UniProtKB/TrEMBL annotation:
Gene3D superfamilies: 3.30.70.120, NIF3 (NGG1p interacting factor 3)-like
Keywords of this entry: Metal-binding
Keyword ATP-binding: no
Entry-linked InterPro entries: DUF34/NIF3, DUF34/NIF3_bac, DUF34/NIF3_sf, N-reg_PII/ATP_PRibTrfase_C
Organism expressing this protein natively: Hymenobacter defluvii
Superkingdom classification of source: Bacteria
Pfam families: DUF34_NIF3 (PF01784)
Family: Belongs to the GTP cyclohydrolase I type 2/NIF3 family.
UniProt-recorded name of the protein: GTP cyclohydrolase 1 type 2 homolog
Length: 359
């Protein structure tokens, strides 16, 4: 769970979502992990057959609140089977959609896009942590904050700002000051240190600050920012190596995703800039147009939503499952790199896509 949530923090899931551990003991000893896009009774059966006691899925099995657990539908049947056989179920859904190296990055890589950026970055997920440190301890305090996840700006790490100044204080009789005498006013040369911080990491950052700082009482300010987070948000946009005629681009889509059909809107211009969103992404059509995309690739478009293209780009519906089918590779790579030879990490062979095609 720590590995998965470091890559896709639960704080980044949408308000309607239900990512995380859905059933099972978090202290369960892992014997094997089966990865699937969806968790169904057949997936649990496959986990049992292969000796896996953890199923990691993209879509949460428990998405809406359960009022009873009687096996009346497939969700309840799946859950009962998992509980009966002591199989833990874990889901990483919109939190994995909303990180830079998540679902949309995988789809963009399959299409060979370059110069990638988040299509709709999130606001309000960042803060600025300010503290005051004696110059002899600035580097140690900053390193502790970096280790806790602070100081990352896009592809730049260990970013900070520092400024020299003078601090004043009077220690009480009950103190053991780093510098100065109890009861006597004191001035100290200090550095004001500022770092950018994802707000969901503030607890870890403040613990690291207190442990590394030499003062008994650590002065700090934590300020919520309205800046966009460049690495967190919905969708992705990038460029093809070379412009393609629309028909050739659709052929590229079918080949890269292995899809039998692409539903699309008419568009005559060459395709160079491509926006995309795995799953149901009609809510980002306007963002795709604003980003200058000539094509927007997603799934689950309804009839009237195709009109939103307004002739300014080609809307391409490749299907919900089809646009997220490579998510299992993300889970596999994360877990196999973190737990080499500890336990089996397998991608399910069970096809969970409920959609079939006739030609």
């Amino acid at each position: 769970m720590r590995v998965l949530e470091q890559a896709a923090p639960l704080a980044y899931q949408e308000s309607y979502d239900n990512a995380g551990l859905q059933c099972g003991n978090p202290q369960l000893e892992v014997k094997g992990v089966l990865i699937a896009l969806d968790c169904t009774p057949a997936v649990v059966d496959e986990a049992l057959a292969k000796g896996c006691n953890v199923v990691v899925a993209h879509h949460p099995l428990i998405f809406k609140p359960l009022k009873r657990l009687t096996g009346a539908n497939e969700v309840e049947q799946t859950l009962l089977k998992a509980i009966k056989h002591d199989i833990a179920l874990y889901a990483a859904h919109t939190n994995l959609d909303n990180v830079r190296h998540g679902v949309n990055r995988k789809l963009a890589d399959k299409l060979g896009l370059q110069n990638l950026r988040i299509l709709d970055p999130k606001f309000g997920t960042l803060g600025k942590l300010v503290t005051y440190v004696p110059p002899t301890h600035t580097d140690a305090v900053l390193q502790a904050l970096y280790d806790a996840g602070a100081g990352q700006v896009g592809n730049y790490s260990q970013c900070s700002f520092r400024m020299d100044g003078t601090g004043t204080y009077t220690p009480s009789a009950d103190t053991n000051p780093f510098q100065g005498t109890p009861g006597q006013p004191e001035t100290a040369q200090e550095q004001r240190v500022e770092v950018l911080l994802p707000l969901h990491l503030q607890g870890a950052a403040l613990r690291a600050l207190r442990q590394a700082h030499p003062y008994e009482e650590v002065a700090y300010e934590l300020i919520k920012l309205e800046n966009v987070h460049q690495d967190v948000g919905s969708g992705m946009v990038g460029e093809l190596p070379e412009p393609l005629p629309p028909q050739e681009f659709r052929a590229r889509l079918r080949a890269a995703l292995g899809v039998p059909v692409v539903k699309y809107t008419e568009f005559a211009q060459p395709i160079k800039t491509v926006a995309l969103c795995g799953g149901a992404g009609s809510f980002l059509t306007g963002k795709a147009r604003a980003a200058g995309a000539q094509a927007y690739v997603t799934g689950d478009l309804k009839y009237h939503e195709y009109f939103a293209a307004e002739g300014q780009l080609m809307l391409c519906d490749v299907g919900h499952y089809e646009s997220e089918q490579f998510t299992s590779e993300i889970f596999r790579d994360l877990l196999t790199s973190a737990f080499t030879r500890k336990f089996a990490v397998l991608i399910a062979e069970t096809l969970t896509n409920p959609v079939r095609y006739d030609f």
